[in-house]
Design brief:
Strand order of the largest sheet: 14-13-12-11-7-10-9-8-15
CATH superfamily of the domain at 119-298 and 334-379: Dihydrodipicolinate Reductase, domain 2
Radius of gyration: 21 Å
Oligomer: single chain
Structural class: alpha/beta
Length: 379
């Protein structure tokens, strides 16, 4: 029997290609408060059931993709889990640490599958680097960097000048408010080397407000993440500066090699490994494309549907992993604990940035004793 999936929110259109190409899934419902947009999307994708009330849609589906504004992700995720539905949530998972804990509660009590939809982890080059790390080609990785530079100033207001949700939740707060596109792939590289690796604490500083001083968000923020092992991850976020987009820059340094993505556009990049002779002439970059025999199987012969999907194929492959986890009951690759940890890095960065960059401990969500005492929180 096929898994009946519903999508809530306009951002969910990116997943339709993956859903409609999967043999075990049926996209049966869309939910959107804008009725004109709802009908346009439903007609475009051939979806019959249409809802403007989220709770009504839950009665007609087995699983939900939450693709609404970020402040709705946690409440809608929790409602779905409480209704016995599986959830794939857009990033970030929540807008407070308390919401992170409550999502974990809902996953535990429901027994359903939750996965964070961090599609940048599924970009071809990022998956290739992960496999190369797993095979030991970089030696021991100890520094990773990611940058998400995306001028979003035009998205902060509607055409009538009124504020959008981004005005409050992405640029109305100081700190790294949207870090997971950069942090997620880096953390997957570190955990490919050591599955027990995790975030320990973060510190965050910003450049000040220059391009659009209406908002508290700094034009550029730098988030430094210290890992339990002592290694370091660096995330630069900029949604304000006037510049061409660069949303997928990454680098990785290990004891035996280094990766540098292209600074312009998607994919590409170069690697260097320590077997080269010392000296400037011996330290020559090699194109990452020369190492594609190390790609995971899903990327060696991708389907046409995968190549058509958004975010470099990420929106297709993430559906496949989510559905497989639902079918088998195994934890998905980006499970609830991982999703909350990556989200919490950004939430803790807000505290750090508001306090001059002081280090802030990231909760270990696997340890219930780290949860703050709340009257209604299970212990």
């Amino acid at each position: 029997m096929k898994i009946k999936v519903g999508i809530v929110g306009q951002r969910g259109g990116a997943f339709v290609t993956g859903l409609q190409a999967h043999p075990d899934v049926e996209l049966v419902a869309l939910c959107e408060i804008d009725t004109q947009r709802l009908n346009e999307q439903a007609e475009k994708f051939g979806v019959e059931k249409r809802f403007t009330r989220y709770d009504e849609m839950l009665d007609h589906v087995d699983a939900v993709i939450v693709a609404t504004p970020m402040q709705l992700h946690a409440p809608q995720t929790i409602l779905a889990l409480q209704a016995g539905k599986h959830v794939l949530s857009e990033v970030t998972a929540a807008v407070s640490l308390d919401e992170c804990w409550r999502i974990i509660d809902a996953v535990k009590s429901s027994g359903k599958t939750y996965m964070l939809s961090e599609n940048y982890c599924y970009i071809k080059s990022n998956m290739l680097i992960r496999e190369m790390v797993r095979k030991g080609m970089f030696g021991e990785p100890y520094f990773g960097s990611g940058e998400y530079l995306h001028d979003c100033r035009h998205l902060h207001h509607y055409s009538d000048g009124s504020p959008t949700w981004r005005y409050y939740w992405q640029v109305g707060i100081n700190g790294s408010t949207y870090p997971t596109h950069s942090l997620g792939p880096i953390m997957q590289w570190f955990t490919a080397y050591d599955p027990n690796e995790r975030l320990d604490y973060v510190t965050c500083l910003g450049s000040g407000q220059h391009a659009d001083p209406e908002h508290p968000q700094n034009d550029t923020t730098v988030l430094l993440c210290k890992l339990k092992s002592g290694k370091l991850a660096h995330v630069r976020l900029d949604m304000m500066s006037p510049r061409p987009h660069q949303m997928a820059y990454y680098s990785l340094q290990g004891t035996g090699g280094v990766y540098e993505a292209s600074r312009i556009g998607w994919g590409g990049g170069n690697v260097w490994f320590g077997e080269n002779n010392p000296g400037e002439e011996g330290r020559q970059w090699k194109p990452l494309s020369e190492f594609e025999e190390h790609l995971p199987e899903i990327w060696k012969n991708p389907s046409e549907a995968a190549l058509r999907a958004g975010h470099g194929g990420g929106d297709y492959f993430i559906i496949s992993d989510w559905v497989e986890a639902i079918k088998t009951g195994a934890p998905p690759p980006i499970d609830v604990y991982t999703g909350m940890e990556w989200t919490a890095a950004g939430l803790c960065s807000q505290i750090s940035a508001d306090n001059g960059g002081v280090p802030i401990k990231v909760p270990d969500f696997r340890d219930p004793l780290q949860r703050p005492l709340l009257l209604d929180a299970p212990r």
